[in-house]
Amino acid sequence: MEFRYLGNSGFKISEITFGNWLTHGSQVENHVAAQCVRAALDAGISTFDTADVYANTAAESVLGEALKGERRQSIEIFTKVFGPTGPKGKNDLGLSRKHIMESIDGSLSRLQTDYVDLYQAHRYDFETPLEETMQAFADIVRQGKALYIGVSEWTAEQLRSGHALAKELGFQLISNQPQYSMLWRVIEAEVVPASEELGVSQIVWSPMAQGVLSGKYLPGQPLPEGSRATDDKGGAKMIQRWMRDDVLAAVQELRPVAEEAGLTMPQLAVAWVLQNPNVASAIVGASRPEQVADSAAAAGVRLDPDVLKKIDAAVGSLAERDPAQTKSPATREA
Q: Closest Cα to residue 17, out of 222, 280, 225?
């Protein structure tokens, strides 16, 4: 495993982050989730990402239990706040001071830790003044409940505003967590340049485009039984945008590219996002322990320029690049 600095800080995280969205507390049994976490640790992964909204807080509890007994200083635990939790009442979501201050305590309890290394605004909250949100984050940092602050899916303009307020309040905004893959490149035009200017890193989710870039979905063929594309509760809606024959056929053109590079298809997808110097880490999930080891092997891989050209030739024209696709909900209704 290799490690990278997160933003303009002295904080290092593993190039591969283990994330438990869509799996822990919902899709897989808790003992299997614990096995996946153990596989991540065995592969050298030290960074773990979750959120209070995942499985309505259950994912945090599963991760906390799975990491119990590990040396706390040797791992990095990230979580997020914004989405509706608990009974989903009027103040059980968003980035108000009330919700943030209550949510951090709930997260720490479920994760069985005194602090998180990174606390992230899961989306931008248009209903709460940004000053209120950033002041709450500043207080959490001063209380020692979070060491660093990050955001997720913020636009370039939102990042600039949040970064300026953080600086005024005496803490660092060091990361953004956007979706990013060969098929979803919306951060490249505006978010990445702004982040480079501000000293903010990307921790990217869905580097395999919800599993499409694994190559397991074939054009004109039935969907594999038990796959994400068949699971109404596990991301079938999100993956639908790529379940077109032209996309699936283009992805199959990556198979010889991966073989030539000595990589599996998932490894090629993960390695590709790590070629972007503004990306600090790629988040991978798993429903089986063996999947973790495969993804972790993408750490440290350097793709030759000709490989990158072949990837662009195969799927580049099908990638979503519109910066306007970086967006948060207009309202925070539960």
A: 280
